[in-house]
Amino acid sequence: MAVAGLGMVGLLVWPRLRRARLWHATITPLASIIGSGFLILGPILTDRFGSYGIVAMVVLCAVGYAFGWAIRYNIARIGDDDGTKAGEGAPDDTAALRRVERISSWALAFAYVISVTYYLNLFGSFFARIFPHPSDSLSRIITTVIYGIILAAGLTRGFSLLERVEQISVSLQLATITALLAALCVYGVQEYSDGTLHYSSAVIGGLPALQLMFGFIITVQGFETSRYLRREYSAADRQHSMKMAQWISTAIYLVYAGLLAISFESGSFTLKETAIIDMMAKISAVLGPLLILAALAAQFSAAVADTGGSGGLVEELTEGRVSPKGAYVGLAVIGLGLTWSSSVFQIVSYASRAFALYYALQSGLAFLRARHTHDGSGQNTLRLAGFAALALLGLAAAVFGRSVEGG
Question: Highest-confidence range of 125-139, 148-162, 216-230, 232-246, by mean pLDDT?
Answer without folding.
Answer: 125-139
